[in-house]
Structure formats: C-alpha cells, structure tokens
Amino acid sequence: MRVLFVTAEAYPLAKTGGLADVSRALPLALRRRGHDVRLLMPGYPRAYVRIENPRIVAKIEPILGVSDATLIAGRFPDADLPVWLIDSPSLFRREGGLYQDSQGRDWPDNALRFAFLAHVAAKLAMGIPKIGWSPDVVHANDWHAGLLPLLLSLEKEPKPSTVFTTHNMAFQGNFPVSWLPKIGIPEEHFCAEGVEFYGQVSFLKAGLTYADRVTTVSPTYAAEILTPEFGCGMEGILRDRGDKFIGILNGIDDNLWNPATDACLPRTYRDSDISGKRACKTALQSEFGLTVSPDAPLIGFVSRITHQKMADVILEALPWIAEQDAQFVAVGEGDPKMEAAFEQAKEMYSGRVAVTIGYDEPLAHKLQAASDILLAPARFEPCGLTQLYALRYGTLPIVRRTGGLADTVTDATATSIAERLATGFVFDEVDRESLEEAIARALALYREPLTWRRLQLQAMGQDFSWDASAARYSALYGAVSGLPETMETIDSPIEEVALETSRQAAS
Ligand code: ADP
Ligand code: GLC
Known about the structure:
Layout: E1 2-6, H1 18-32, E2 36-42, H2 45-50, E3 52-59, E4 70-75, E5 82-87, H3 110-125, E6 137-141, H4 147-153, E7 161-166, E8 174-176, E9 196-197, E10 200-202, H5 203-210, E11 213-216, H6 219-224, H7 228-231, H8 235-241, E12 245-247, H9 275-287, E13 298-305, H10 311-323, E14 327-334, H11 336-348, E15 353-357, H12 361-370, E16 373-376, H13 386-392, E17 396-400, H14 403-408, H15 414-418, E18 425-427, H16 432-446, H17 449-460, H18 467-481, H19 494-506
Parallel strand pairs: 1-2, 1-6, 2-5, 6-7, 7-11, 11-12, 13-14, 13-16, 14-15, 16-17, 17-18
Antiparallel strand pairs: 3-4, 4-5, 8-10, 9-10
C-alpha cells in the first residue's frame, strides 16, 4: 500500500519528543513490510539542512492566503525513508522552536501553520500537484494534522482512506472561532458533531471525528481516554467511534537505541556482558562532576520537565533522594519554574545531583546507558518511550501504573522476580511517598547484585521492536482501504518523480 504519513516532527529532522521517534520508526517498519510509506512534514530550517538530496518538486498553489510555498523532496540522512517538506518561509522558516518561539510562547499563527500542513497534505493525497504518486491511505498524527481527515471527507471519491493517531489527548490544538474562515473549514462543520469544542475550533476533535479509523499508542491509554479522567473532554467522541478506535502499542527503533552499537556511548555493551555499562556510568559521573564510583546507584531522568511527567513530584522527592546512597542525573526542559528548581537542587546537592537543562540527544543516550534506574513516572502516559529505551539498556525503570507505562513494565515483586517476569518498579499514587517507596524498593534490590542482574537480563530481553505493532497498523490500513495487505508495492523512486516534475516545469 502507498501511505502518506503526515506529522509535525520526525527524528532526526526535527524532534521535541516521542512523536518524532514514532514518525521515523513506524514508517520504516512499515516499509520493511513492503509498504511504500512517505512522510510529509513542515519544512523547518533544521529539517531542510538535514535531509539528503533536497530538490524542489513543485510549487504549491496559494492556499489560505499562503503563496510562498514549495514542496521539497528528499530522504532521511540515515534511513531509507522518502520525505516531502513544505517549504514556506512565512510559516516555517523562523528561529525558535517547532511550535513556540524562543521565549516558550506558542507561535501566534499555529492554527494557520498546521491548517496549511493539512491542506497541502489533502491536496497531495488527491494528486495535486502532480508528482506521480498518490496514497491509498493517509495517516495523520496528532492535532497538527487533525484537519486532514476532515478535509479529505469533503473530497469526492476516489480518495484515500484516513487513519488518525492521537499521541496525547492533552494537546488538542484548540483555537478561537475567529480562525475558522482563515483555516479553510466550511462553517457548517463548526458544530457539536464537527470541530466545535467548547466554543473553539479543535484540530484534535477534527481528527478523532472525521478519520475512518482512530488509534492511540497503547491499549491501556486507549481504555483510559474513554473516561472523563483521561479523555480531556473528548471521551464521548471516542466512545462514539466504537470499534473504529483502537490502541496499538508503540515500539522502538532497534538500530538507534541499541547499547551494543550506540555510537553516543563511551563503551558499548550487550546483555551477555554488561561491563561496558559500568564504564558508561563512570564516564558520566566524571563528566558531571559526581563522585566517580561504579557501585553507587545512579538514578537518571530524561524527560520533558512537566506536570504530565510528575516533575513536580520528583522535585519534592529530591531532598530525600539526595539523602540516599545514590546519585541523580537529569536532562530535560520544559516548565521554567521547575527547570529553576532542578538547577537549585544541583547547587544544593553538588556531587550527588547533576542537572542539564536543555535538549541533548547524545546525552539522553549516554544517560540511559549510565543509569541503573530510570525515573519515568507520569500522571498520564499515552505510551512513553523512555522506559522502553531504559529496558533495552538494562536500566530498570520506575513508572506509575498508567497508560503505556502500565503496559510495558512489570513490577518487581517476590513472585514476578521468581517467575522471571519483573522488569522494573511500578507504583500507583501521584504523590511523593509512593515515588519514594518505589525508589527505596529499587535501591534495596540494587544491593542484591544477583537479583539485580537477573532483572537487567529480563529487561534487556523484552521485545519492543516495531514488528508486531507495524503488523497491526498494516492490518488496519488493509481493513480501512479494502486493499489486500500483501499487495506488491509499486515504489516509484522519488528521484525519478523529481526529475519528471522538474522536466515538466522546465518545458
Ligand atoms: P513524550 O513524547 O511525552 O515527551 P516519550 O517517552 O514518548 O515522551 O518520548 C520522549 C523522547 O524525547 C525520547 O526519545 C527521549 O529520549 C527524548 N527526550 C526527552 N527529553 C529530552 C532531552 N532533554 N534531551 C534529549 N532527549 C530528550
Ligand atoms: C506523546 C506521548 C508519549 C508517546 C509519544 C509517542 O508524546 O506523550 O507517551 O510515547 O507521544 O507516541
């Protein structure tokens, strides 16, 4: 099948979180199954400089008053994945973040920026401009691409089927109704059965409502968001979708996140010999000015510093953590107040606590490898990838029993350890005591090297590769498009398409 995968970020072109990891790994896994998956995303400057062999393939006719856009084709620098970038200087070529300026304020024209993404995707899906390729299925991700299923619902057959995945119900893309005429959505769709959500236009609601099928990124989160506690006001919409809505667990990219080959690590290691992991720990300890001691338990935290990730509760627990015979290293960014509190803790407990505020991909890898324990708690977690990376790196995760965390980590109890099922530590309540109790359990087991080693082996042996989940998406595409899953792919190489188009343009 030909699949157009539409996303706001994809590693390594542009990344703020797990969506970028999935937007790379899932298309690649689907391509390995023989599907012709191609990506469409905004042409941020950082993406443009990273793609290989970028070529202008078409000028995009003015839509929504945006008349400066061209479509650029290229490939991922390090993987067999074709991508189209929408190059619009007015919308995407700017200094700052993908969604926010350098002060952390949302770009004021986000509604227009991502409506434009959806409009261009819809046109492309309908064969405009002519680039010699059109999809059988369009897979739209998160609110940024939420208007796309709606736009395609307005088109006449033949047209591709639509799948929409919500990676996080808390990010909804809700905008004042005054945006409606500017984002090209017919007024009659601003209603309770359409995009209206408490008086605003909701991009997320559009995706959930108009897509042929809706998915989210773990089975437990899929069940949770049918309830008011987790549904963020959209639980009724999801319930109405019935069996058109399912949860498919994310996987991880085995090549990028593999301690045996990870180029970011000072020493690689594998489950049969984890001595390299100790070397990673001492290297990190000395890099961060911590007491260099391969036996001191190192607790890592690689995360957005937000309320979702219980960063506030970790901060409450930090004085207690600092009193334990353990070290704590965090890399993250997010809420400025909490960032400052982490910095303060670093000063207060120097030698035992180290903090890097910011986004640092190689450091994320090094910290996963160096740590013995990864803190990955959350008030809610659609899937969570850091706990999966931790498992792969023999770093035992501490998680709260929610969403994808509940689906992927098995709590270490006497029984689960004996049955060789335990892979980490799971707690239930959102409070400091519960977090501390879980950390205390982890630290106690750390002092039993044989048990700890058994748990590490168990963790490293888990299979969270994309294969099984990609098979489920593949089946879903088959079901929604009516096409046989096994149909042979007609993979028209993108270079030829580019040549063809530039020849047409030249003539
Ligand atoms: P979410 O997408 O909700 O932030 P996930 O666990 O799904 O959570 O994915 C987070 C991704 O972002 C992981 O790849 C993690 O390594 C990465 N990450 C988070 N914070 C940082 C950071 N400060 N520096 C580098 N990578 C980070
Ligand atoms: C979101 C979620 C996270 C998930 C990621 C990829 O960022 O918060 O739980 O792992 O998307 O699906």
